[in-house]
Amino acid sequence: MQPFPQHYSVAAHGTAHDEVTLKAAGLPPLLTAPPVEFGGPGDRWSPETLFVAAIADCYILTFRAIASAARLRWISLSCDADSTLDRVDRSTRFTACTLRVRLEVVDGTDEAQARRLLEKAEQACLVTNSLTFAPHLQAEVRFVPAAEPVAAWHQVD
Length: 157
Hints:
157 residues; alpha+beta; GMP Synthetase, Chain A, domain 3; 3-stranded antiparallel beta sheet; 6 strands; 26% helix; globular
């Protein structure tokens, strides 16, 4: 990992009627448009969906790092993020987010440790730490028979 502070840059370009093109060094361009709720076509990523996606994505990547450090053997993690956009004090903003996560681990895994690491990922996620509200975590740990191939497990050797 690189030292702090780190800097991230994105360039956006749009016209009066077309989608917006987002560009960042080394990444493919991403086309965005307003969501249906704001009169958009509903067939592109929007700032709202990108915001919620960033929460879910960061949660999984944070869990991956924490689980690796704790040497937790896990198979997969799914995260469904549902956020509420509302008007507060004449300002439109996200006011809540629920993360429904499902962690698959091999039979015999310490469930208490897995749950602690899921909660720790919520607390350590840099995106959720940047929010003005605390997300609500709903976690499920699912056990998979040990017959699953070891290659599917995520663990640092």
